[in-house]
Amino acid sequence: MIGLFGGTFNPIHNGHLHVAASLLERLHFDEIRFIPSATPPLKNMPQVTANERAKMLAIAIKDTPQYMLDTRELQRSGKSYTIDTLTSLRRELGENVSLCWLIGMDAFSQLDQWHRWPELFDLAHFVIVERPLDTQPAMSANLQQVFSQRITNNAEDLHTHPCGYCLKLEIDALAISSTTVRHRLASSLPVDNMLPGSVIDYIQQQHLYGV
């Protein structure tokens, strides 16, 4: 079973790594692939290049054997649509392997804004992460109907089926955001507890984020 952790990772921080480590322990993935987005469809273009963000990712995950950097979205032109990424992975890995897209509850609640979103469930499961005290975000009626049809409380369903289920897990996620990290870096404020030291070193060496 493979976990797929997509995002801009602008930059990768300890909050991302904490979520990945928690899901690796609880769901026993064979590997987790970090997939940096080159041109995110629903966000502004990151100030730092996709290649720089991928390099920071590679540095952050290099000591965990179950983590892998997947740069397929950097090798495509146009917007980085998840449907294209999952289709490519299915073509590469076959129809039988379990693929699980890792996503926060806030992002999942907007899934019906994603390109060809109903087809995503034919390609992967969704592992939806929420913090215990978070307010449940509102979903559209269409998404709520799909979610209620596909929700499972049994993680074994993800291991025994290649796609199609939603599993919601509570994780005490760290209160760190990439936006806060970027602001602190640009303001010359310390970020020692927010990023791996090796990533901080790279940011300073390359003078990223106004450092």
Cα(first) to Cα(last) distance is 39 Å
Mean pLDDT: 93
Q: Spans of 5+ residues with little confidence (pLDDT < 50)? A: none
Major pleated sheet? 7 strands, parallel
Give the helix level as a range of percent: 25-40%
Find the CATH topology. Answer: Rossmann fold
Q: Give the second-level CATH assignment, the architecture.
A: 3-Layer(aba) Sandwich
Assembly form of the protein:
single chain
What is the alpha-carbon Rg in Å?
17 Å
- Overall shape: it is globular
Order of helix and strand elements from N to C terminus: EHEHEHEHEHEHEHH
Given this structure, which CATH class is correct?
Answer: Alpha Beta
Can you tell me the CATH superfamily? HUPs
User: Counting H and I runs of at least 4 residues, what is the number of helices?
Assistant: 8
Question: What would you note in describing this structure?
Answer:
This protein is an alpha/beta fold. The chain has one domain: Rossmann fold, CATH 3.40.50.620. 36% of the residues lie in helices and 16% in strands. It has a seven-stranded parallel sheet with strand order 3-2-1-4-5-7-6.
Brief summary:
By secondary structure, the protein is of the alpha/beta class. It has helices at 14-27, 50-61, 82-93, 105-108, 141-150, 156-160, 178-186, 197-206; strands at 2-7, 31-36, 67-69, 99-104, 125-130, 151-152, 166-170.
